[in-house]
Amino acid sequence: MKISALKILELNEKYNLIENLSERESNNPEGSGIDLRVGQVNKIIGDSFLGADGSSRERYSPKTELIGDVEQDGNKIIILKPGDYLLVTTVEIINSPTEKIKYDNHLPEGYLIPKIWPRSSLQRGGVSFHATKTDPGYKGKLTFGIKNLSNEDFKFELGARMFNIEYESVIGEIKRIYSGQHQGGRVTSGGEKETQN
């Protein structure tokens, strides 16, 4: 069951689900979710490897080049050229609770997980959005991929609202909370080998 934007804001006061919310989203969110902003943009400049479980649990994610950071560059305009793929990271920090919470008096406690959607402005500009789920226990900024599928440039400013977050409750128990290498909002291993959790 999805939780409304106003309920997210109510729960945010108690559980600090989302840090660094914009004034607009803190006071006047639109619809059922809350918009998140793009704060950092990276370009992939190296290869990566994901080994199988068992004898080879090794992996490395690619080296990247920072091409924009809202804290350093303000509202710098980024140009996503046709065919380009970039990693985009939120301004906001997500804190997924490690325990079940009571979010409604008429429903059982549950783990809350964020689900991220692209704003429709991306698809209208020919841009595909690549995301994954976020498990209970994750804390940090979120990083997604965007790719320009059109034949025209797609331009955006750092600080623009690019994503929308909704929350759902997980029914049942989980074996363990998130303990992966991207805890804290890490974008990449920078080409350094590491062992998968």
- What is the CATH third-level topology name? Deoxyuridine 5'-Triphosphate Nucleotidohydrolase, Chain A
- Principal-axes shape call: globular
The CATH homologous superfamily name equals Deoxyuridine triphosphatase (dUTPase)
Helix content: 10-25%
- Output the radius of gyration: 18 Å
Q: What structural class do you assign from the helix and strand content? A: mainly beta
Distance between the termini: 30 Å
Characteristic terms for this protein:
4 helices, mainly beta, 197 residues, three-stranded antiparallel β-sheet, eight-stranded antiparallel β-sheet, Deoxyuridine 5'-Triphosphate Nucleotidohydrolase, Chain A
Give an account of the 3D structure.
There is one protein chain. With 197 residues, this protein is mainly beta. The chain has one domain: Deoxyuridine triphosphatase (dUTPase) (Deoxyuridine 5'-Triphosphate Nucleotidohydrolase, Chain A, Distorted Sandwich). The protein has four helices and 16 strands. The strands form four sheets. Strands 1, 3, 6, 8, 10, 11, 13 and 15 form an eight-stranded antiparallel β-sheet that branches. The longest helix is centred in the N-terminal third of the chain and has 11 residues, at 5-15. The two termini are 30 Å apart. 25% of the residues are buried.
